Structures are given as C-alpha cells and as structure tokens.
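Handout, page 2. Input:
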Amino acid sequence: MDKKFLYLILIFSLIINGVLFLELFVLDKKEGKKTTTKNDVLALHLKKDVNEGLEIYKLLCEEKDGASCFIVGMLYSEDMDTSSNYQKGKEYKKKSCEMGNMLGCYYYARHFIETDKEYHERGRYYKKACDKGNIAVSCNNYAVSLIKNTEKTEEALTYAKKACDLNGANGCFNAGKLLKERKDYKEAFQYFKKGCDMGSGTNCNAAAMLIDKKKDEVQGFELKESMNMYKRSCDLGCYRGCNNYATSMDDSNPEKKRIYEILSMIPEMAVYGYYNLACLYSKKGDKEKAITHVKKALAEKPDLAEVIAMDKDFENIVNLQEFKNAIKSAKCCMMNLN
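Output:
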C-alpha cells in the first residue's frame, strides 16, 4: 500500500478527532456541563480507534518506516497490558532500531534487566542510541551500565561527559562522581556545577560538598557559596541538600530546626532529621527532647549507636541513664540482627 495514502488516513483521523472535540465542546456548553478537555476526547478516540490506528502504523512499518515501527512497539508494550503484547512491543522496537530509529534502540534496551547475562545486549543498544542518535539518557545509561558491569571507567567517563554535554544532568553527576573518585576535584566540580545549572538538586548538593571539603582544589569559591548551593539543592527537591543546608546554618536560626522537622517526616530522611534534632536539642540544653530524638534516630538505624555515643554534641546527655539505656538497647538490637 502507498505510504502517502496511509499518511492521509492518519491525517484524516486527526481531523476527525478535532471535529469530535469541537462537537463535545459545543454540546457541553449547551447543557451547562464542565468543558470537555482534549484528554477526555483523546481517551474516547483511543478507545474507539486504537486498533485501526495500530493497523495503519503496522502497514507503514512494513513499508520500512522506522518511526511507525517504534509507535507500534510503544502502543503494544505501554498501552496493552498483556505479556504477549509486551513481547510484540519489544520486537517492534528492535525492528525500528534496525531501521535507524534511535528512540527504538533506546526503548528496546530498556526491556533488558541489568544482569551480567543481559549486560552486553542492553549496553549495545544504549551505545547505539547514544552514538547515532545523541540521546542523552541513553549515553548516561550506557555509562552506568559500564560502571556496574565492567572496569571500563575511562569509557564510562567519556559517555557520561557526552550525556552531560547533551544537557543530561544525570550524565553530569556521573561524570563528576567518576572524576571525584580520581581525585580530579576541580573538573568534578565543573561537571557538578553544570548539572546544577541545569536544575538538578543532586548536582547542586554534590558541588556544594566539594566546596566544603575540597576548598583548596575548587578555587574561586568561598564556603558561603556552598551554603547558597545547598539552598538551591533543597529548593530543587534534593532532601540531602536540605539536610546539608540546615547543617550549615547557625544553631540560633529557627529555619534550621524547621528543616530538620520536615526531614524527620520523610521516610528515607527520617534518621537524619531525628539525629540532627537530637544534636540541636542537646546543645540547647533540652535534655528530654534530645533523648527522645536519639531514641527515634536509633529506632530508624540501630547501628548509629556507636556514632551517637562518641558524638560531642551529646555531651550534655551522655551521662544520663536514659541515654545509656538507649545506646545499650540499640547495640543489643544490632547483635540480634547479626
């Protein structure tokens, strides 16, 4: 069948969809209903015509149209929740990749789980989508695959850098992380900062931590600038950035306590919130609240017992029997777990 004719059918289908939207819009206005949205119409249209549209795309795919093969693959694997259709989706994505559609290569690679057995297949298609399609997320995923499954850190760094250059913030973070492991702190900072400028809170936090810990290597930045980066990291939704931002504040700043209280309500950050609140209360002389939060921190992470026992921030409560009992109880808990 002629490709042009199939494309005309698709265009006609889109026009019908637009007319349907206008008809429903007018009808809603007449009946005083809430205005129909395009999503409502799209849902109706998909329910009615998805099979017809799928068949058209399949015909176009047979005409060696890689983009159409990719669409068929996505429709099968994403919109039709059965194992047979999922497998068909995988096959069509591979077919689209072989026809030169790099999105097909990327999504085909995602079908493989990250195991030693499937690493090469997964990595090969991520690499192809990166090399030929300049898809940032694929470049980064290939870098991550190399880091997890090989010792090819040089190649991993090359692909992480490429992902970053393609405006992939995760690539910037992984490039920075690899450079940091090499103790190339100056270049690592540049990649973290680049990712931060893209709006990645994780990168902002990593850049700020380098200013804090490796100030001599990261020249041109003062410690106060790390605090600004921690704040930006927090504003961008990075909880660890929020924790570091609060830690960098003076204890008299009420915002510090507020941030720790918020973190204590977030499951993955609760231990940090409780621990830092305990430190804050102890230093302020509020022994009862300090011990309460020590217990909460230990309930989240019993192996903190040794750290808490040695922390100078708890010198106001270290000799209290209730504090000693909490530490002892946590150590016993760890022994039972082991």
